[in-house]
Here is the input.
Amino acid sequence: MSDNLTPKLLSRLTAHPFIPELHTDDCDDTSCVRCRALTPANLYEVDTWLDNAGVFAKQFWETIDGELVITGLRIGADQNRIVAKFGNTIVRHYGGSHTVRPTEYPTGELTSAEWNALHPIGTPVKAYPGVHGENGFTTWTTSTAWTVHGHTPVALVENYSGYIKLTHLDVIEVAA
Here is the structure.
C-alpha cells in the first residue's frame, strides 16, 4: 500500500461501495447500505458511519419547550452543510454528497414533548428497564417525559428507582 494515501482517501476507498441495485430513489430505509434513518437511539451509530466515510458531522441542537436538546445531525461543513433531524433519512450518493428526506418507515420514537402531548402522568405502561422485550413489568408513569444527555427521551415509572427510555415503555391501552 502506498504511503501517499491520505486518511480521507483511504476512508473513501474503504466505505461501503455504491451498488445501484441496493440503492434507488425509492429504496427502503431499513435494508439500503447507502441510507440511514436518524433516531435518538442510533445518533452515535450514524455519526460514526459518517465519520468513517470522511464526512464531518456534529450534533444539531435546538431549544424546544425551553429545553436545549439534540434534534439531529449537521452534516458537512461551510455552505455545503445540511441538517438531518430525527425522523429523516440520510442518503449517501455516489460521489460523496448527502441529501436528507423523510423516513419511509418511521421507528415510532417520540420526543419528550410528543410523548407528553399524548400520554399524561399515570399512563399504564409495560416497562423494560434493560433490554426491550426482556424482564418487563406492568406499571404506570409517575412523571412527564424529559430529555437526558441532550438526546434520549425518558420518564419515571412506579416501582423503579431510575428513569426509563421512552423506547422501553409500551403504552397499555385501557378499554373505555
About this structure: The radius of gyration is 19 Å. Confidence is low (pLDDT under 50) at residues 9-22. The chain is about 15% helix and 30% strand.
